[in-house]
Amino acid sequence: MLVEHCQKIALVGTSCVGKTTIFEMLRNSLGGAHNVVFVPEAARAFFEKNPGIARFSADTQEKIQDFAIEQERKVEGPDVKIMICDRSCLDTVAYTRAAGDLAGASRLLTNIAYWLPTYSAIFLLSPDGVPYQNDGVRTEDSTFRQAVHNAFVQILEENMIPHTIIEGSLEKRVAKIESVIYDARVAS
After folding, report:
1. How many domains does the chain have?
2. Where is the signal peptide (predicted)?
3. What pLDDT, on the 0 to 100 scale, is given for residue 3?
4. Each residue of 96-138: pLDDT tens digit?
5. Is 2 inside a domain boundary?
6. Is residue 1 in a domain?
7. Diameter of the chain by CA atoms?
């Protein structure tokens, strides 16, 4: 389990909403701090190593979920004050639910019930106003993209998981996230 004083931030959402771009911008602005760590997207690494695998099956998503948690555990430590995650183990639940496997999504959510409280902030990036770009790893269409976003909203609201929806231009998205990080740093 993460040490209690670590502020752990997850950037979550459907494909192509700016998560990795914002993650890299935060890495550029905060990366020099010795007590800030960055956890890259687990799903992209998983699919690059496992091309052709059934992407949205609950079994595949469970492997990604385990890998995401493993990546977060690797960087935790007593000196870590801020952990910023490009995605989270919650993404697997939304993708499975959007694919129509409600039982699988429920199982995946149960699997991470112990881990969700380790996130001090979950930022759900909205797809509104962000054009979709297919890149070979990202292969879903715009309808599925919206279904994933809707699944995120439903999961977060139904389970009363604290989160903030991030909208607007890239600059506004980054500014909102940075303000939360700054406010938490000042408070600690």
Report:
1. 1
2. none
3. 44
4. 999 999 999 999 999 999 999 999 999 999 998 877 666 655 5
5. no
6. no
7. 46
In a domain, 148, yes or no: yes
Kindly report the backbone phi and psi dihedral angles of residue 23, in degrees, each rounded to the nearest multiple of 5, phi listed first.
-55, -45
pLDDT tens digits along 124-175: 999 988 776 666 555 677 889 999 999 999 999 999 999 999 999 989 999 9
CA 23 to centroid of chain Cα atoms: 10
What 8-state DSSP symbol labels residue 39? Answer: E
Q: Would you state the torsion angle of the CA atoms of residues 101, 134, 19, 118, taken in this order, to the nearest 10 degrees?
A: 30
Q: How far is the C-alpha of 8 from the C-alpha of 77, rounded, in Å? A: 12
Residue-wise pLDDT for 30-89, tens only, equals: 866 678 899 999 888 888 888 888 888 999 999 999 999 999 999 988 888 889 999 999
* Paired tokens of 1: 């389990």
Can you give the pTM of this predicted structure?
0.89
Q: State which H helix or E strand residue 19 sits in.
A: helix 19-30
169 inside domain: yes
In this structure, how many other beta carbons lie within 10 angstroms of the beta carbon of residue 116? Answer: 17
Write out the residue range of the structural domain in which residue 73 sits: 7-187
CATH number reported for the structural domain that contains residue 18 in this entry: 3.40.50.300
